[in-house]
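Quick one before lunch.
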Amino acid sequence: MKFFVEKMSLGFCGFFGRHFCQVMRQNFAQSCEKKLNDQINMELKACHQYLAMAYHFDRADISSPGMHKFFIQASAEEREHAEKIMKYMNKRGGAIILSSVPEPIPCFQSSLAALKHALQMEMEVNQHLLDLHTLAGKESDPNLCDFIEANFLQEQVDGQKVLADYIRQLERAQNEVGDYLFDKYMGATSGMHGDK
Ligand SMILES: [Fe+2]
Ligand SMILES: [Fe+2]
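Model of the fe (ii) ion complex:
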């Protein structure tokens, strides 16, 4: 099994009929394939963390339905991102290697703390995307550069601005009533990318 996994990670797909994925492989460096797999796993990690956040805010002793809705949407978006990259990996003839997802933080002291964590996580994801874009440039892979630019870079910046706005608004409204009103507001928004 270990041999199989190692060979798969190196791009040898000649087992179990998966050799077909190699037929159209062209100008796709193994370093890019590895970093794309890391990106898929980062998106799935974020998906899992947002899901944990969503159901933390659904607890009866927290009861913030607006925050619950916001993080449910964010979790679904991260899964979409992971699947978009998986689809792309297959188009390039790479091998998708999923890793185990780390245990997410289960609960947060406040809505503000959760949003600050979300922003930090998004900035880490964005840094990894930027590093992936740099690598694709070094490996002379314009198709990968274009895929990252067209599908991820602007959306990340837009989402980070939304989170930064929410953090500032909550900082200004820090008491029980402010938190309650902010949650009502979150219930009416359409997620991190609602204004696209
Ligand atoms: Fe993402
Ligand atoms: Fe995101």
